[in-house]
Amino acid sequence: MTGPHAYPRLGRRDDPEHHDQHASRDRREWRSGRQRISRMVVGVAPYAMLAFAVALTPLLDDAGQRSVLGAVAVSGLSAAWMLWMYTLHPAWRSRPRLMGVFIIVLLCLMAILVLGYPWFGFFSFTAYFYLFTVVHSWRPRMAGVVVVAVLAGISQAGGIAQVTVAHIAVLSGAIAVNAVVACAFTWADSVSEGQRQQRDQDAAEIAAANRKLTASLAENASLHEQLVAQAREAGMLDERQRMAREIHDTLAQGLTGIITQLQAAERCGQDPAERRRHFDAAVTLARESLTEARRSVRALCPEPLETARLGEALTAVARRWTERGGVPVQVTVTGTARPVKPEAESALLRTAQEALTNVAKHAGATRVGVTLSYMDDEVVLDVRDDGAGFDLVSVRDAGNIAPERAGGFGLCVMRQRIEGQSGTFRVESEPGFGTAISVSVPVQPCGEPAAGSAPDAVLAATAQARG
Do 148 and 115 form a contact (C-beta atoms < 8 A)? Predict the structure, then answer.
């Protein structure tokens, strides 16, 4: 699968980032609702409990042992302190030191009220709300909770006016019960808060990882598209090179042979038999070139290999070349024939055809030898002639330079074709002593990939681009 479909875009419901956003929104909504309820309770309950305790003062102090005005005065001071420090200035709630002062003063006022009027324990209990709202560090919160628990125990024991063993026991029990319960609740809330923060941190890390994953998927999709585009371009380039080699091996060679035969016929002068022989050879070459062109269009293997093995195909090619040029070619096959990939066989046959064409065009040879040798791990093809030869130094590494500088396209094509099959290409020549071309390709079963070949994914993409 290519293009953007190779990395399918996650649907809205399957997108992990969408799930993270949905979960984060749910957590924010739940916390927002909890905070609204907490603000409502903290904003109303202390004033309500304080007013309730003040209302109880004349009812519970019917003996007149306590000053109602004193309770009202301290209660008014407490209400003013809460109103000024907390209710009217919500921005101060995020300032820990200022809130610490607020809590300490408020606890002192509550202690005065509870010690003088035990029923103000209804009011002192609301200090828990402030502690859990504005004190976020668990140690200061725990200290404040212990103080409130002591005030609650004193209130429940009826104050500290009586100093008896029974009263001290009741007071101690009440303080202990309140302290244990309040501290346990505070500790549990602290653990829960830590877990919540850890969950938030984990959720943030997961969200960041999902964002990176999404970015990586998008980057991979882009890289995949670039790879497919490069593979398509490489496939087009390979196809153009293949077509260039096919045209050179078929039409160009055939046309060269036709021109050679017609020129030879023109030089025959008044010898009709010799002229006819060259004309017949030119016609035969034209027909073979037409057949080969049609076969190249169908992108099949070379025609001689369709009905014969490599050695037999080389013999047939050499026989036809001898009939056209009159130069004898000796074909020798050594070793036990082994299965070779069709592409490698085609490369060897094309190389032999190109070498023979070069002999006919440039060498002026009187004898040519073609040897096909089957080795244990490779197949070697040698084409030697006793022609004019050439200066090898001037065209060294001919396959790596421009054809016009290498004396033609043939050597370059032969080298590219053989090296494309992971083979080797060598040329030996010297002016006046002929030329020898030796090539070899590895023996490899048809089903195995060639050594040094591209990865399967790139090959598949290239094949698809060609298709």
Answer: no
Q: For residue range 68-114, what is the model confidence (pLDDT) as tens digits?
A: 888 899 999 999 999 999 999 989 988 999 999 999 999 999 999 99
DSSP annotation of 307: S
Please tell me the least confidently modeled range out of 49-53, 220-224, 300-304, 402-406: 402-406
The 10s digit of each residue's pLDDT in 109-142 is 999 999 888 899 899 989 988 888 888 887 888 8
Q: Are the C-beta atoms of 431 and 362 separated by less than 8 Å?
A: no
Beta-bridge partner residues of 330: 369
The domain limits of the chain are 9-215, 310-449
- Name 68's Cβ contacts closer than 8 Å, sequence gap at least 6: 57, 58, 61
Residues 392-421 have pLDDT tens digits of 776 655 444 344 334 455 677 788 888 888
Its pTM stands at: 0.41
H or E segment and range at residue 82: helix 68-82
Q: Is 110 in contact with 124 (CB distance < 8 Å)?
A: yes
Which tokens belong to 206?
A: 């997961």
- How many whole angstroms separate alpha carbon 333 and alpha carbon 326? 22
CATH number of 310-449: 3.30.565.10
What whole-number distance in Å separates Cα of residue 438 and Cα of residue 190?
A: 85
Token readout for 66 is: 């306590």
The Cα 57–Cα 54 span in angstroms is: 5
How wide is the angle at C-alpha 19 spanned by C-alphas 13 and 24, nearest 5°? Answer: 150
Torsions phi, psi for 234 (to 5 deg): -65, -40
Number of neighbouring beta carbons within 10 Å of residue 451: 9
Selection from 308, 405, 301, 304 nearest residue 356 by Cα: 304
Q: What distance in Å separates the CA atoms of residue 117 and residue 124, rounded to the nearest whole number?
A: 11
Quickly state the pLDDT bin for 464 (edges 50, 70, 90). very low
The whole-angstrom separation of Cα 105 and Cα 15 is 52
- DSSP string of 211-223, one letter each residue: HHHHHHHHHHHHH
pLDDT at 294 over 60: yes
| 329: amino acid identity, one letter | V
pLDDT higher than threshold 50 for residue 455: no
Any alpha helices (H) in 83-137, and if so which ranges? Answer: 96-116, 121-124, 127-134
Extract the tokens encoding 247: 């045209």
